[in-house]
Specification:
The structure is a homodimer of 359-residue chains. In chain A, strand 14 (302-306) and strand 15 form a beta hairpin. Chain A is 40% helix and 19% strand. Chain A is α/β, with parallel strands linked by helices and 359 residues long. The two termini of chain A are 28 Å apart. The first copy, chain A, is built from eleven helices and 18 strands. The radius of gyration of chain A is 20 Å and the shape is globular. Chains A and B meet through helix 7, strand 8, helix 8, helix 9 and strand 14 of A and helix 7, strand 8, helix 8, helix 9 and strand 14 of B.
Chain lengths: 359, 359
């Protein structure tokens, strides 16, 4: 997708052919800063501290992190150590494990230089496939929006999204936002309600930035506002991403998603999940079994933004203790459908064999 | 209630006997600043710009605002003008109109100095009655908490609240928080989950401040987190305040309340409203008919807090457009009960005659 009109992916190799470049997303939307990852430790830190985030992009970054680790030490014990260090960075997203397992399988048969080469090849494949996957998610999802537009001729469609499941959460295009970008490109009048997404404000700082760069009309709202907007019939459709889907279709996603799904059900608003099949985790029976990452209380009590002098600054909103669970679980019963690269389905059951095969 | 151990009300006459003092709540919790209101215009501004807020306290402030206006001009046309100016400050809370109507009825029979005296007398009565009312709400509500404590011996009860319906929202004691303060005073182990309450963060800055001053254990959470906590059985009870209750029991309260009520229902958590009967509005048939105040987008995009140097500073979180509806409506079907000064009831029907009488 584009920044100031120039196409970018969110992760790419630098000119030296081995170090990895990403956007330091903590600086967005105020500063477009590129970080150069040169070691597995740095890649792990970039994931843990959320320089980079979003389930698919975390997987891609971990894949390249393993490349960097193997470049320093390609031995079998080192491979295991790199794998473990990267896997430990974020406990909730399953794409992280999916990408690392795929990388391990690809490099295992090789040693030394050939192992390193196989790693870079596999990481590049993971990235390219993510782009293809997201384009396919967009193609399937845009049909839902086209159907809505046909049913509501002559008016703008209002789509609500939570957190950031756009191109900044993936290698390119995005998952939940891919259908929206395609709809906009096809001149369907869409307007996006962007949940701020406390505590880290990925909606206000990343989704709004993406949509603005692409020219998609949008309005930032407090996370509290979505229920009222649905009561007032100002939301036609919700689309969100996910970090892991359990075998029964329960959806683990950014904290607060569940509340929007409840409101959507209460008001008859369709609630869709945009996701690559790699996000299904058939090894987990139900959402309640997914580990929920508890992050630092400071993410709740300290907020970053642009200060009056234009610099990025922090303000503390309370001295009281705070809790910061990062994800919640939306029960499958509240999900209208799953938009995947293979099509849209009302139940994830049909995809379980696919996942088993690719997993 | 106490600040640094010293008892305070939220509104009182200054030593000159006519000007009115309030806390400038926009400065809390970082600075305890007292504002002196000397004119009806200043009182209207204090309500509109939320130096003071909370449905009961807005009513009390408007009452004293009318006193200040009559002190300058006690004529009939001036009375009407003051009434209108104060009524226009906030469209959603019904206590504002209730207090102003009561004031008008009290001063109407008098002229000149006697009208002014009658006004001050009525405003003082409104304040004193608010204190008595809230103490009674606390007494009735604490019985619910005592029953929960008996059913769960030996463990701390977790109560979730949204926005601020504590003593800072009233003249003293609070509505939704009154039962919690009483429970704590009676050595029932309670812990409060405090919704941050974006966009203005009244939970993080006011409720957390109140609870800390009173020594009640509490944890601030993002508004998004309550659903997960209920899924995890970490919430025993929700209590919130309200700005207006319709004839059918629909509850208008701070934006986001509806989402918590949905989650409470989905997880079998009791959801109570703490309110004075003056908050019932029998003239409104249902919640959807209550006017929803739309406030400035800046309240969403600019966040205030303590900066590194200790001063109160603002940061901007996005340059995108934002929307800021301030209230939503929780349908009566999601409300377990209403805690009022007359007792706890599962339906508001029984109170309508009371309201008609007192209205």
């Amino acid at each position: 997708m584009k920044i100031h009109g120039v196409h970018h992916r969110t992760i790419w190799l630098s000119d030296n052919g081995w170090s990895v470049r990403i956007f330091d997303q903590r600086q967005l939307p105020w500063r477009i800063e590129i970080a150069e990852l040169t070691s597995v430790e740095m890649a792990a830190r970039a994931i843990r501290e959320m320089w980079t985030r979003g389930a698919p992009l975390v997987g891609a970054t971990a894949a390249y992190g393993l490349c960097l680790g193997l470049r320093a030490d390609a031995s079998d014990p080192a491979l295991e150590a790199h794998y473990k260090a990267l896997l430990a960075t974020r406990p909730t997203a399953v794409n992280l494990r999916w990408a690392l397992d795929r990388m391990k399988a690809a490099v295992k048969p090789h040693q030394g230089e050939r192992r390193v080469a196989a790693a870079y090849q596999c990481a590049a494949a993971i990235c390219n496939e993510d782009v293809d996957t997201n384009r396919a998610i967009g193609e399937h999802g845009v049909q839902l929006i086209e159907a809505l537009a046909r049913a509501n001729p002559g008016r703008t469609l209002n789509i609500l999204t939570h957190c950031n499941a756009g191109w900044l959460a993936t290698v390119d295009y995005g998952t939940a936002l891919a259908p929206i970008y395609l709809a906009h490109d096809r001149s369907i009048p869409v307007h996006v309600w962007v949940d701020e997404t406390r505590p880290r404000n990925q909606g206000a700082s990343l989704t709004a930035f993406e949509l603005a760069q692409h020219g998609v009309p949008h309005t930032v709202i407090a996370d509290n506002a979505g229920g009222l907007l649905m009561q007032q019939r100002k939301v036609d459709l919700c689309i969100v991403g996910t970090d892991r889907v359990a075998r029964n279709g329960d959806v683990c996603n950014k904290i607060g998603t569940y509340l929007k799904a409840l409101a959507a059900r209460d008001n008859g608003v369709p609630f869709y999940i945009g996701l690559p099949l790699s996000t299904f985790d058939p090894s987990i029976a139900r959402g309640a079994d997914i580990p929920i990452e508890e992050r630092s209380a400071e993410e709740v009590t300290v907020i970053y933004g642009k200060s009056n002098d234009g610099s990025v600054a922090a303000v503390r909103i309370t001295d009281s203790p705070a809790a910061n669970p990062a994800f919640d679980v939306t029960p499958a019963r509240l999900v209208t459908g799953y938009i995947t690269e293979k099509g849209v389905t009302g139940t994830c059951d049909v995809f379980v064999p696919e996942v088993r095969k690719s997993g």
